[in-house]
Write a structure and sequence with these properties.
about 15% strand, Rossmann fold, 7 helices
């Protein structure tokens, strides 16, 4: 059975945390986990580079949920997204949009692009087919350690569905992640 995790975070994730995210993705890929990401610059692409760099052709290693087809096109192309071990959804399902609206603190103020970004966050947690294979874990980084920004939206959905969240902003969580990568 495939185990899924959402590897997400702020576009402003510090470089040292992005390196840790990359290394976590490599380690988790080696253990058979499948990454779910939104493809954004920063944290998402750090996770993607690690997971894709360690993929095998026998199994799917990455699911990327994009808000629209050409989102982060150039950066994602550099990450070699032609692999058969990669699944990509380029438009949120209507149910994901409804769930995003339910958990966003000010949905009415969001434009269409922001709504698509938030619906994409719902897919990172619940998958492509609504809870059929939910993520078991969220690994993220937010600038204040709280559920803020787009990452915060994914965290609220994860919390509501009982998905464990590990925010690397927390020093203890970060140390445990470093030990996990080091095999300790």
């Amino acid at each position: 059975m495939t185990q899924f995790y959402a590897g997400i975070g702020s576009r402003q994730t510090p470089a040292e945390i992005q390196r840790l995210m990359h290394d976590l993705a490599v380690t988790l890929a080696a253990q058979g986990w499948t990454l779910r990401s939104g493809g954004a610059n920063g944290a998402d692409q750090a996770f993607l580079s690690g997971a894709i760099g360690h993929h095998t052709t026998r199994r799917r290693c990455v699911e990327t949920f994009l808000p629209w087809a050409d989102y982060e096109r150039d950066a994602l192309r550099r990450l070699s997204f032609g692999s058969r071990s990669h699944v990509r959804l380029e438009q949120a399902e209507p149910w994901a949009m409804k769930i995003a609206a339910q958990f966003h603190p000010n949905w009415e103020a969001c434009g269409q692009a922001a709504r698509k970004l938030h619906a994409r966050n719902t897919h990172q947690i619940l998958g492509a087919e609504r809870e059929s294979e939910m993520s078991k874990l969220v690994i993220c980084w937010t600038k204040d350690g709280q559920a803020t920004g787009g990452t915060g939206q994914a965290m609220r959905v994860a919390d509501a569905y009982g998905v464990e969240i590990r925010n690397l902003h927390d020093e203890t969580t970060r140390r445990r992640a470093e030990a996990f990568v080091a095999g300790r």
